[in-house]
Amino acid sequence: MTSVNVHDANGGAKPSLRRSLSLPLLVLYGLGVTIGAGIYVLIGQTAGIAGIHAPISFVMAAAVMTFTALSFAELSCRFPVSAGEAAYVRNGLNSRALALLVGLMVVSAGSVSAAAISVGSAGYIRVFIEVPNELLIPCIVLVMGGLAAWGILESVTAAAVFTVIEIAGLVIIIAGGFISQPELVWEISRVVPTTFAAPVWVGIASAGLLAFFAFIGFEDLVNVAEEVKEPQRTLPRAIFLTLIVSTVIYFFVVSIAVLTVATPELALSPAPLGLVFHRVTGAPYQIMSAIAIVATLNGVIIQMIMGSRVLYGLANQGDLPAFLANVHPVTRTPLIATALVVAIVLLLATVFPIGGLAETTSRITLTIFGLVNLALIRIKLRGDKPPKDSFVVNAWVPPVGLLACVLLLLSDFLG
Fold first, then answer.
1. CATH for the 22-414 domain, from 3.40.50.1240, 3.10.330.10, 1.20.1740.10, 3.40.50.720
2. Among 402, 19, 395, which residue's Cα sits nearest to residue 233?
3. I want to staple 386 with a disulfide (CB 3.0 to 4.6 A). Which of 85, 113, 162, 390 is the partner?
């Protein structure tokens, strides 16, 4: 399917988004924002809360994500548009105001996430050059913003290359850990709690909120729906592949990290995966720090792409000023929307600490997920028929997804 030009109010051709993303690029896009957003930045803080059981926090977060991912997969077939979450809520809950609120929450979550990753990226860059964060963080945000504005195929292709590099770094840690310390194969069972003591599980659940941040990304796929080839076939597959691959990688990387490095040391390290890499391979930690720079920069650019597409989608649907839906005829990207997202990220990244940014992102995202699941519940209760050949989930899936989101939010308050 090729993109077509729509017409403005005067009858002239108006540039539209270009459908150029295939399944491999889309999966790499999802993996890039998911993996770059969390594991390289927050593994230390997660281990500091849950200790050796931190891998279970990631499994718990993945379980929460699974049911919501199923809901997103069906809704992405029903409504393959930019600003997908807002469209889902508008159609499911029949509330334009609530849909706008959800759309703005998505932009907020993406902007806060990009800010958190920018701060984390600065920590890895300072392993090589001693530059004040006050100068380094704005440079990161502005350069990545320029790349996001360049063009969807160009920026996502660059992100795909970054993704391959960052996944290779994590695979090296997994392989290095098992090769250098074969006994780790048997010691992985230690990460599973053998007690039902409340403090242990409260710690796991509390760390689960941070771990949840590491899985945020699959939902960004629906917001480039208007730039995807055959979205009804491609989007559900990309969502599932992104979640499965991320979960497997996270579990093994975090397990090796907590089994090879003392959790207090891991929690205090400004470049935690660089430390783990050095312990399991004996190679200089700067190698992994360099890969982490690529990973975190990748997370920044993809969140910016997502945020700008949501603003574009909301404006295109008449919920925000029309100028935010303007697509540049050369780059075929929404430049004004992109510039606004970059400005918001820059402000957040220079004002707030990384831990607070990550937890705020998780809370906002869980609220959005809850509303999306509720929207699908209403759509199914009304008996609305999905398009032909769409992916469809059982009726019990969205209620379980909603309950899982509520429970994880409650664990945050209990923790």
1. 1.20.1740.10
2. 19
3. 390
- Which pLDDT band, with edges at 50, 70 and 90, does 2 fall under? very low
pLDDT tens for each residue of 215-263: 877 777 887 777 778 878 888 899 999 999 999 999 999 999 999 988 8
> Which tokens belong to 245?
């691959």
Per-residue model confidence (pLDDT) at position 1: 37
Separation between Cα atoms, residue 400 and residue 26, nearest integer Å: 27
